[in-house]
Amino acid sequence: MFESAGADVAFLLARVIFGGVLAFMGFNHFLDVEGMAGYAEFKGLPAPKASVVLSGVLLVLGGLSLIAGVFPAIGAGALAVFLVVSALKMHDFWNAEGEEAQNEMTAFLKNVYGAGAALAFLAISNAAWPYALNIGL
């Protein structure tokens, strides 16, 4: 699967970029729990603070799982589900107007293409990954 020249390094770079960005987003949840909880409450999430903390944990652990190659099927699957649910629940651009609608559509689309990437990682999670711990594959 990773036999072409540079495929192993490109795949590692993809894991670090994708997983790293998601883990960074998760860490940001902990830096502004109150602000994010207010937004979550505005969007109608139950237990907004707990939702922010749990989603932060999911993003950090899911991102790190892809970077390290530790239970990548679980990490990628959880990230894909989270990103789709978040896109639909948190970024409902169809209910917004003007600039808010554009901002929500941008966030929605980022979550959707992120879910697509997570599904791609899920699809190859049973292969041995180069430069990975390969635990749980």
TrEMBL record:
It comes from the Archaea. Keywords: Membrane, Transmembrane, Transmembrane helix. The keyword Nucleotidyltransferase does not apply. Coiled coil: none annotated. It is found in: Membrane. The chain crosses the membrane at residues 12-31, 52-85, 112-133. The keyword Transmembrane applies. InterPro entries: DoxX. GO terms for cellular component: membrane. Its main location: membrane. It is a multi-pass membrane protein. This is DoxX family protein.
